[in-house]
């Protein structure tokens, strides 16, 4: 068993060292009932070793409170026996127990607190209570040892160090800052204590009583790099290095731990095991408590009822299990509930709480208070004292909230043990409390713009949507879980976890953004690991006010007509050989022509007929009408839901539309129908906007028309659009332009014509419509480009190896160019990105569609990215091995290292890529280029072309980096498809490439102070620390994942994850970048925050 005290930091020792210190042939400690060994015989071979003692300890003298003690017992006592732990000053009853059957190995580690009792006696007993063996353990520092230390913030900005000791003398604290000398601070008043008569009811006044010792506290100045010791002239604690407090308004980014109902290892919710004040040492260590202790980002812990330690400043407020009692003379007894009269505190009535957490004001003990830490003002109310309108607490809350200086502390976090909102359908006696929290406290939250309301009490996790601007987070499950209840799910309920232990990490990024992450241990999780189970971001309006408003984004905001196609053919009861003729029924929706979609990528709902069931292997196939033998899209019929069906978004294939057929497992067509597009083959599809020149935009699209097209651009407030015509001939390619199969044969289909029109930078809210031949696109509203030097804060979407929904890595399903639906990954990355209105730029650095030589995959991918992100803000793409590499590429690069001769592109050799993502006028391919966007200079290099010293690309790269105007664009980001560093060992091929990049490209990154190098290729996420000043980000898991590596690579890594996801780069301004890796969390079926990083620019 491994545990971490909430009261003091343990001195962790090696279990192996403890075990090796045991001698199983001569006792390491003197045990009661065991005599000393006699004098040894002259001949050792004739003296048998004594048998091992039934119960053995690694030591009988512990150095400090809560040090680890290894307890061992022999094999005959590994079942149906118990080890009771008794305080030496009260041997009539035990304080803890250890069931031997819970530890089949015959050993257990326990952490014993120095309870000022002269130590402990351990008794090995059988099931009848017969004592078999006893052993003693004591503490070297004695009963006066300072224990249970913690640090809190005071209103005046100082720090209070509090601890417990057996000494009634005044204590002292030694502290120092950095390498400076020690400073001594003395306790200014006598330590406090309490007697049994100060408590109010049983069991606190009866079986639960023992002398609590003396409670000490000393104030010291708040300083950075603190080292602290506390105690007396005779006995001092070990040294602690707590996080210093942030003064009000300090913008230092940091994390805060938020949780309630923490409890303690070995106890239940009823005051120890079985409610009898016993500690059961077979209990597990809370994964949440382990994670909080291990999270080095946390600078402050805020508990809504409970305890922690000397790791960070700790702020607590009272809960029902500290205060509630039937016999408390100060108990609030409102007429709307009897809940406050329950003996939840076991008769303590707040007495131990206020001695352990001293906080006073002019009126006495401060059961409610507030404090500032960095950019946040925290309000700690007491839901256990009267809080209704007109009460002393309510008046204080209003006054405190009204005085908050939001220019210093723009964020306002409000805590209460009991919530305003929870979703259990039967809250019992809590109903009245919930109603008055809503009627009396909620209006304060709204009036004063409280950002986050944090509560506990109920042992689960819940989070609301913003309710009149306030998020409500119920975080009451770091250790205990309530029995499952029936939940209502009103509109405001966003997340509910009944079976997840966890806590919330609140990341204070800056004055504009807070990020909250719920770290949870799922019910099927193993060990002590926690995962991101929920995350949400709070932003100030000043940050998002200049973000684009969406008209055609995300898809479905203005819902297009939906064509309902119900397939009645080949239903249950029909065999593949059935000659029965069946039909396809079409539900004609209003204002739409049957079987005609208005635009490419409009949704088609595919639904089985009522009470019918598809047979295994049945599919619904979409084939271009001009090539019916080609299966372009395929829907697995058996995966369809009778009630919901499946929404498919097909690209306009430029062949007169689709023949949609129902086919059996052997390919037999049972029935079919046609699906066409109102705009015909000339419809502009797969459109996206990109950057060109210093301040212009370029619109790209695909159409069957070879005629020059045009773009109509209309600024907001005007009545007539401006038309910009295509100035060069549209481009196309033929099968023979590529270099090998399948691209030149079975994968080829006429790709249509590729069009480009340059337009001036758009104004916010402007609209664009594209026309080619007889076809017209839908209306788009792209965001403006940020010109070089524009400091507007924005986000950038960065990803590698994105792929196509419905496709695999080899050119569609099984490498035959077929896109199959439903897909296990229904485009999670793009769906998450398109819902985030902060994005102003997208960058895909290689392995874009994974078309594998099949034109049809490119078509579907182009429409998927264009409709989700490409026409919402500029999209920039660079080449990867799956677009370019082939064994017979006439322009290929074939060095004596790497795998550049592999058939990764399916014979495309860059031809489709260069037509779809042209640079400039598109007259020639340009595989490396750069551009400015806001305060960032982006360099898009190609790792698929020669980048070695002396090459054309290397000369260009150095020249480009040397001429960056760091006044306009202080940030420089380089992207390349292949990485220099990996969290896993490189194989022979990728290792050779990485070595070449490190030898020839990395020196340029160092020389010109490149800030970030983004790569993909390997399907995972990893982040290095700065290497020669450059942080390397491997984010190549846009859809696919590598096999989990069995060993670590040689490169330093700060984070490594095998999770599908992407990077959101928050360009805060000229002096700060922030990154977030959003990864798919299968447990909650959501994209959640998996990693964050920040870079400061001090040049």
TrEMBL record:
Catalytic activity: a phosphate monoester + H2O = an alcohol + phosphate
Record domain Calcineurin-like phosphoesterase: where: 308-461, 822-1021
Record field: compositional bias (Polar residues): 708-722
A molecular function GO annotation: acid phosphatase activity
EC number: 3.1.3.2
Pfam families named among the record's database cross-references: Metallophos (PF00149)
InterPro entries: Calcineurin-like_PHP, Metallo-depent_PP-like, MPP_PAP, Purple_acid_Pase-like_N
Keyword set, alphabetical order: Glycoprotein, Hydrolase, Signal
Keyword Iron: no
Keyword Iron on entry: no
Signal sequence, renumbered to the chain: 1-33
Coiled-coil parts of chain: none
Region (Disordered): 708-731
Family as reported in the entry's similarity comment: Belongs to the metallophosphoesterase superfamily. Purple acid phosphatase family.
Assembly behavior: Homodimer.
Name of the molecule in the record: Purple acid phosphatase
Organism: Perkinsus olseni (Perkinsus atlanticus)
